[in-house]
Amino acid sequence: MTQTSKIRTPIVCVLGHVDHGKTSLLDKIRGSSVVDTEAGAITQHIGATVVPIDAITQMGGALSKLTVSIPGLLFIDTPGHHAFTTLRARGGSLADLAVVVVDVNEGFKPQTIEALQILRNYKTPFVIAANKVDRIHGWRVQENAPFATTFAKQNERVQGIVETKLYELVGKLSDLGFNSERYDRVRDFARNIAIVPTSAITGEGIPDVLMMLIGLAQRYMTENLAMSVEGPGAGTVLEVKEERGLGTTLDVILYDGTLSVGDEIVVAGHTQTITTKVRSLLKPRPMSEILIEEKFERVKSVTAASGIKVAAPKLEGVIAGTPLRVIRGENRDAVVEQVMNEI
Ligand code: GTP
Ligand code: MG
Questions:
Q1: Cβ 136 vs Cβ 166: under 8 Å
Q2: Read out DSSP for 242-269?
Q3: Residue to mutate (ligand 1; options 23, 28, 42, 100; most atoms within 8 A of CB)
Q4: Rounded Cα gap, residues 213 and 210, in angstroms
Q5: Is the dihedral of CA 36, 18, 55, 7 positive or negative?
Q6: Tr-type G domain: from which residue to which, for each copy (predicted)?
Q7: d(Cα 342, Cα 274) in Å, to the nearest integer?
Q8: Ligand 1: distance of its center to the CA of 289 in Å?
Q9: Which pTM value belongs to this model?
């Protein structure tokens, strides 16, 4: 795996309308239950989870014959509630790839359309998870099965409903200027958006979503990703939090380069930039989510992409949503100016 170690973990943003199943889909992927711990089960923040490639290929089962060269996927959950447009745009701007979750029974809703606009603006490749197929009346559940397997087990009436619902999504996407197809009928992934029928509850279709994401990452991103683990770290501050024994800390998504203990960093306060030195880095263990995991592992250094908690002096007053940059020798003036421009 040495040659793969330089390839950056792609950042995958999960977007979509409220209650269409984004957090549940991630829960199924990471095997935990974040949705149960949320107030009224509504996501009110961006959460980040690293899923290692081994876990992904295991879930992919027979589908995982692809030659995989990425270390894993860093998933970012976003809220679907209409009040959180800024958080969604922030997630969208960080993402290399995205999953748009749409309840197949409800179809497109305002935040589904907003998500597609964000992805179009940033030219982010994405797949659509046509979720909650298990809610189709008469659906016969095949736990965690790839879509083709479970579709073959459904009766003709249910198959017909699935096709009709997908056809409606294809039509809606076409109105919005996107060509799309059921994922197993897509010939050219550069021209067509793949739609994968899923159930976040039964796990059906999830292996296919993961394989689509890995396929997209490999096809379009290997060059970009390969360049992005060396060099000074760059990230976005998701949250500023008090932690007992640590003082003010930053939850950061590092999307580029390396961040190490002892690094000089620059972040944004209300009116000026703040320059400080990293005292400790706390990494959530793989598959756990940075915003709910209590037990962190202390590390000396992290490479992109990672969700990482940064402890350092002088972090009071840092603003969430602003950049974090590592100062390394000659880049000082440039990075301070970049961060200043965000204030
Ligand atoms: P926000 O974070 O508020 O935008 O919602 P969300 O998109 O994260 O939705 P969430 O995962 O919280 O799911 C909303 C509800 O739909 C929960 O009660 C889930 O159990 C249910 N749900 C999600 N996906 C599925 C699915 O595939 N099948 C069924 N039957 N229920 C689902
Ligand atoms: Mg959610």
A1: no
A2: EETTTEEEEEEEEEESEEETT-EEEEE-
A3: 23
A4: 5
A5: negative
A6: 7-221
A7: 13
A8: 18
A9: 0.87
DSSP 204-231: TTHHHHHHHHHHHHHHHHHHHHHTSSSS
User: Are the C-beta atoms of residues 10 and 221 closer than 8 Å to each other?
Assistant: yes
The helix-helix angle for 85-94 and 110-122 (nearest 10°) equals 30
Task: Return the higher-pLDDT residue of 285 and 134.
Answer: 134
Element (H, E) at 301: strand 301-303
- For 31-174, list the strands marked E by DSSP: 47-52, 72-77, 97-103, 126-131
Ligand 1: lining residues by beta carbon, under 6 Å? 16, 18-24, 35, 41-43, 79-81, 131-132, 134-135, 199-201
Contact (Cβ atoms closer than 8 angstroms) between residue 50 and residue 74: yes
* Cα angle 86-31-17, degrees, rounded to a multiple of 5: 30
Q: What is the pLDDT of residues 37-69, one digit of tens each?
A: 555 555 555 578 888 888 787 776 555 555 667
**Predicted pLDDT at 311:** 96
DSSP 66: S
| Residues linked to residue 49 through DSSP beta bridges, in sequence order | 75, 289
24: which 2 tokens? 């549940």
Nearest protein CA to atom 29 of ligand 1, as residue: 132
For residue 200, which ligand has an atom nearest its CA? 1
Q: Where are the alpha helices (DSSP H) in 154-199?
A: 156-175
The 8-class DSSP code of residue 327 comes to: E
Give the pLDDT of residue 217: 86
Go through the chain and tell me how many residues it has: 343
Mean pLDDT throughout 165-185? 97
